Amino acid sequence: MATDDSVGSLEEQALKRKERLRALREKKSAGKGTEEGHNGDASAHEALPKPVFRSYKPEDETLKEAVIPEVSPAAIEQEIKEKVAVGKHEDLAKDVDLASLAPRKPDWDLKRDVSKKLEKLDRRTKRAIAELIRERLSSATSGQDLATAVNTASGPQNVDSDED
Questions:
Q1: Is the dihedral of CA 18, 24, 30, 32 positive or negative?
Q2: How far is 55 from 2, CA to CA, in rounded Å?
Q3: First to last CA, the chain
Q4: Closest listed residue to residue 39, CA positions, set 47, 50, 28
Q5: Which of 50-64, 130-144, 148-162 has the highest mean pLDDT?
Q6: What is the mean pLDDT of residues 83-104?
Q7: What is the 3-state secondary structure (H, E, C) of the chain?
Q8: 58 closest CA partner among 48, 94, 50, 93
Q9: In whole angstroms, what is the distance from residue 30 CA to residue 28 CA?
Q10: Between vectors from CA 10 to CA 6 and to CA 12, what angle results, nearest 5°?
Q11: pLDDT for the residue 44
Q12: What is the pTM of this model?
């Protein structure tokens, strides 16, 4: 019996849906029927928009009533003078940064990205140089005097340079 009740409720729901669809169809067809019935001469004149004459002057007296009057431009000279006066007070040359306007070299972004790494390397290089000088001085003090050790450390060396 439980299946009969569920089947009965399903059939009821299907009938309700069919009834709603039928009502929608009737409503739709009734809307079309009223539009077709009102296509008489009186409603056709009401449905047409009235002409707007902007760029030419009609010769018919009945059409002359629909002509839009010519509009003269508003006087805005005072407003423009005020805006120009306000604009003169601001000195734009001071606000412009010439560095941002000048073209940059093609590799500026690479230099910016590598600069942090180069700073670390510079610090390491300076430490290494200082350590080498200390070693030379400590080894030189045993056999030589301090001035000759410094001169040999700062003398010309055969080092290849990457900077061109």
A1: negative
A2: 79
A3: 99
A4: 47
A5: 130-144
A6: 71
A7: CHHHHHHHHHHHHHHHHHHHHHHHHHHHHHHHHHHHHCCCHHHHHHHCCCCCECCCCCCCHHHHCCECCCCCCCCCHHHHHHHHHHHHHCCHHHHCCHHHHCCCCCCHHHHHHHHHHHHHHHHHHHHHHHHHHHHHHHHHHHHCCHHHHHHHHHCCCCCCCCCC
A8: 50
A9: 5
A10: 115
A11: 55
A12: 0.27
Band of pLDDT at residue 164, cut at 50, 70 and 90:
very low
Token couple for 161: 């340079």
pLDDT of 113 above 80? yes
Name which residue leads in pLDDT, 35 or 120: 120
Q: Which range among 79-83, 93-97, 100-104 shows the weakest confidence by mean pLDDT?
A: 93-97
Q: How far is CA 119 from the centre of its chain?
A: 36
Strand pairing partners for 76?
Answer: none
Helix axes 146-154, 108-143, angle to 10 degrees: 150
**Which residue would you say has higher pLDDT here, 104 or 146?**
104
Amino acid code (one letter) for 65: E
